[in-house]
Every structure is written in structure tokens, then in C-alpha cells.
Automatic annotation (TrEMBL), chains A, B:
Protein name: Uncharacterized protein
Keywords, in A-Z order: Hydrolase, Lipid degradation, Lipid metabolism
Organism whose genome encodes this protein: Populus alba x Populus x berolinensis
Family named by the database record: Belongs to the 'GDSL' lipolytic enzyme family.
Pfam families linked: Lipase_GDSL
Alphabetized InterPro entries for the sequence: GDSL, Iah1-like, SGNH_hydro_sf
UniProt key word Isomerase: no
GO BP of this protein: lipid catabolic process
GO MF: hydrolase activity, acting on ester bonds
Length: 242, 242
């Protein structure tokens, strides 16, 4: 009935329906016009996410999503030799994995609007404080993620989008354009504050609208109540429901 | 893949994905376990909503919702002879319309968990202030809704649920059990504040859990990242994805 928007990604997508989350804001923006489905998998990198691809996006679906955001990289960019090295994926493979995802989605539906989102910047101080709050003095001295490395992955993501002729949101650069982004947008140096969620929401709405998925231009799925004649209500429903 | 939870109702359902809304909180509670779809239609009464029924819940669906909340009555209970009389539906017909909805959903899927939610209480002072903020001195002297009348509809909703052997949430009574409910739970005398949304969220989670749809007892749709062996990731996906 309504077009579907699928949010595919890691924890930053999984948590997008927490209070003030970018996913729920998007669902509200597309209220009565599109359904927003979360397919966020905390801790996943692109290598693991590839295993989910045909399961979440089967090729033979009669109703593929109208739009999908692909939002990975925060885990792929975890450093080797540090706490989260299990999640590390080399940047060349990260790019290749993203490419496989995009091509698969385009095979599902050539008309699907596919938008890549880069990992957010990393606030290394914030990560350190977070690790200390969890592990106290046992916290690792060295960061498991750096902002510089997240930037390397972000650039590959943006360049891949250009090569494939699809849209990307360079969240890594966008957020760093605001003074105090470290605490303003990131709650633990990596995940989003409500203000950080608002940036993602705004960017996704902007990019969707620049393509062909502007909520303002989409019709309501069913009549607005003001179109219903109290004495002859059936008239309003003739076209769509009767 | 995941079971679906559908929220069917009027504006209080339509607005449930605003910041702090009960719909987005529910989506977060069932994160990675069920999808929450909003089918809220602001201004609708049960008479108009009946026209949508087979459109939203087709009888031949291969994947009917696992659970549906039906949350109408705030508009049906609008008084005759007042500003919103166009939305008024007599209480006997309200009850009959709700019954038709429940029977239709049970025909769609006898296993579907159907939960009726009564209209919330009405803060008549809050409605008056809201009308004044919109229309100034031109605001109607007399309220278009009263708390007493909302209670009449709420009782019929609860009694119908008993008669049909299904679950109901008596929101009208529940909210009035808290001192200062008028401003604490209602933003304009009728719609919900974040605290009011929290009450609905809590009640829906309670009733779903008392039935068989407890998020805590439901499996993740796909492996948690901690189950993935970094060196042999495919093992974790054998059962569900390969």
C-alpha cells in the first residue's frame, strides 16, 4: 500500500528509534505516506552484513523498498590490534562490500533509491571517557577507533557513491563542520545524541527530497479527514477503498 | 521475516512517532524482533475507519499482523451540536463498529492478538485553552468534548472487549488514577504529552507481554554480533541465511 523505506546499518541504525532517534523522526516525516522499517544490527561490519543481504532484500520480492539507506563503517574502521579488532574490515574490502550491497539492491529493484551514509566522526576523548566509565583503570590506553581512520572509510564511501552514480551523505565531514561536534553530536564518542540524530534525519530528508522521495510531494495513503463529507462519507473512499 | 505489529487508530496513533511517542517507543522495545507499522488517521471516527478496514487488513494477506491495537473513540465521542459534531458517532454504533473491526481482524488471522484501547480522558479546561489559542475570543463557549462522554465510550469499549474475550486497555481510567493527569498526560486536553505517551507505551507492552508477545521472550531476527566468530563468520549465519 505505502512505499517502504528501509534503514540498513549497524547500531547507529538499530538505535534510531530511541527517543529523538533519526529513524522515528523519519517515520514521522513520512507519516501516512511511507513506512519506515529498521534493519539495524549493532556491532555488525559490512562483511557480516553481507550474509543478511538476500535474507532482508530477497531478489524475488513483489514489493521491494522504494528507498534504502546503507549506513556502515563505524565497526569496519575499528583498528587492528585493539579492543574491537574482531570487527575490523580492511578499507578496500569495506568499499567492495558496500558495492555488493548497492548492486544487490539495484538488482532487487532498479528504481530503488539507494543512499550511502558514511560513518560519523569519532571523538577519541569521548571514547576514552566511555571506556573508563565501563572498565575503570582497566580501560585500554589506546583507542579502538580514531577519527582519522573513520575519515579514510568515509572517503571511500563517498567516492564509491560517485563511481556508482548514487547519492551519499558524508556524515563524517558534515558533523565536523559544527563547532563542538564531539559532545554536541556524539554521546560516547561514536553513537548519536538527539542533536546528532537530528543531523542524520535532516540529511536523509534532504537527500530523499533532492531525489524523488519528498514527503511534501507524496500523497496521503488514504483520505484526509477534512475531505470526508460527514453525511456521505463513502464518497471520499470510492476511489481507493470501495 | 519479523512479525508485524500494526497500530490502527486516530490522531493519537498517527502522532505516535513524534519525539517520545508511544509508537516509536514500541518500535524500540521490539527492536530486531518485530516491525511496528502506524496506521493512524487523524480526525477519523470508527464509522470512517471502517471504510479503510479491508484496504489496510486484506483478508487474503499471506502475512497478516501478529498483533493490532485498535485505538478510536476520541472523535466518536465529540458532542452533537458543537464544533466537532461532524465526527460524532453514537455510542451504540461506536461499539458495533469496534466489534466489526475485531471480527474482521480475527477473520484475517484467528491467531492475531487484538487489543482495544479506550479514548484517553478529556481535560475540558485544556481544550478550552487550546481553542482560545487558536480562535481567541471567537472560541466556542461550550466544549466540543467532555470527559464524562469520553468515559461513556471508554466503558463500552472495555465491555465489548470482555464480551469478545479479548484484551483492552482502559486508558480513560488508568490516566485519571494519577494526580494532575490533566496537564501531566494531555498537551491540549486531548492529545498526549511525552508522559502520556509513556503511559500508553507501558500499557501496550504490559498487555502484549501478558498475552504471548513479550519482547524479552522473542528471539532476535538475526544473530547478535557477539555470536559471530570473527574468523568463521559464516557459521553464525548457517541456519537463517545460508
Amino acid at each position: 500500500m505505502r512505499p517502504q523505506i528501509v534503514l540498513f546499518g549497524d547500531s547507529i541504525t538499530e538505535q534510531s528509534f530511541r527517543s529523538g532517534g533519526w529513524g522515528s523522526s523519519l517515520a514521522n516525516t513520512y507519516s501516512r505516506k511511507a513506512d519506515v522499517l529498521v534493519r539495524g544490527y549493532g556491532g555488525y561490519n559490512t562483511r557480516w552484513a553481507l550474509f543478511l543481504l538476500t535474507h532482508i532484500f530477497p531478489l524475488n520480492s513483489t514489493k521491494p523498498p522504494a528507498a534504502t539507506t546503507i549506513f556502515f563503517g563505524a565497526n569496519d574502521a575499528a583498528l587492528l590490534g585493539r579492543n574491537s579488532e574482531r570487527q575490523h574490515v580492511p578499507v578496500e574490502e569495506y568499499r567492495e562490500n558496500l558495492k555488493k550491497m548497492v548492486l544487490h539492491l539495484k538488482e532487487c529493484s532498479p528504481a530503488m533509491l539507494v543512499v550511502l551514509i558514511t560513518p560519523p566522526p569519532v571523538d577519541e576523548e569521548g571514547r576514552k571517557e566511555y571506556a573508563k566509565s565501563l572498565y575503570g583503570e582497566k580501560a585500554m590506553q589506546f583507542p579502538e577507533r580514531t577519527n582519522e581512520m573513520a575519515g579514510v572509510y568515509a572517503r571511500q564511501c563517498v567516492e564509491l557513491a560517485k563511481d556508482l552514480g548514487i547519492r551519499a551523505i558524508d556524515l563524517w565531514s558534515k558533523m565536523q563542520g559544527t563547532d563542538g561536534w564531539q559532545k554536541k553530536f556524539l554521546s560516547d564518542g561514536l553513537h548519536l545524541t538527539p542533536e546528532g540524530n537530528a543531523v542524520v534525519h535532516e540529511e536523509v530528508v534532504r537527500v530523499f527530497s533532492e531525489a524523488w522521495l519528498s514527503a511534501a510531494d507524496m500523497p496521503y495513503d488514504l483520505p484526509h479527514h477534512s475531505e470526508i463529507d460527514g453525511k456521505n462519507p463513502e464518497k471520499a473512499f470510492l476511489q481507493k477503498c470501495l
